[in-house]
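To close the chapter, one final illustration. This time we ask the reader to focus less on the individual chains and more on the assembly as a whole: which components sit near each other, and how the overall shape emerges from the parts.
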Amino acid sequence: MAWLTTISSTDAEGDLARTYAEMAARPMPDAYRSPTGEAAGIIRAHSLDPALMARAFGSSGALQASALDWADRELISSVTSRTNQCFY
Amino acid sequence: MSEAVLAREDERLPDREAALARFAVALTERPWSLSAEIGADLTAQGLDAAAVQAATGTVAMFNYFTRVADASGIEFDYRSPLPRFQPDRDRDAAPRPAREAWPVAEHRTLSSFPTMVEPWRDWHDYLFDADEPLTRRERRVLAAAAAQECTDRWRADELAGELGDPTPADDRERLLDAFARKLSLTPWRMSEADLDGLRDAGFAEKALLHAISLTALQNAESRLALGRRLADTLT
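The assembled structure is written out below.
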């Protein structure tokens, strides 16, 4: 269980439920989808503030049109996470 | 390639991918160190300014995501056929250089990503231009600590000007300053106790999220600017 209070997509209401639905509707590699069908932990971590959630992931989405292909971006993101000693 | 990355053996990667990996390590671990030699390493592999900006954007975002993950305590919930990554929580952060050696990066966006400018500004303004659940000053105390630990002199100076006196003024601000420095330097050492410390000081749960997100955002923004600074030196 996370240390920060989070609200699952199944328990979400109002703006949070709508934001979760918008996030789920975005194109996303299967590897990024949680096997439980719940929103991924990194998304749920923002659940106390759906407006913040939308902004954080909207900005990351804007990086998809890139001079580097998906494999390069995955390499870079993996090395970055590894350097920060993070499983993410 | 995945196995090489997990095993921390980037030199086993093909030359071009190894150059990208070295850049990601440098910008993450030693953001002040993006030298002409690193630029030459990238251009030797056919990576131009646009590619370096693209790499910078990804490094910046994952410096955000990893800090949110580490500070919020979320669990690993992705399918993967690969061995589980084992973090080295005893690892120390790279020592920071003296302030006079901090690079000055005036350009704070990625010119190769014009569609990113408005969403990013909206995100930034949402976190910085609010009075609750953290005050505007508390937000800037967090960001100032993060910008300093990123050796982002332009942003550190800007925030010092906004704060007037950047020295944390009371116990709450000292707590926020310490939180932001730890999350910036050694995010892998964050624990539930760090959040409990903020709770014990009276910060609401949503304030904890904003403290995490804002600190992580400043880490991303500082790296965005420092990577852009290198990209601007390339043809």
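Residues 205-231 of chain B form the longest helix (27 residues). Chain B touches chain A through 72 residues (CB under 8 Å). With these observations in hand, you are ready for the problems at the end of the chapter.
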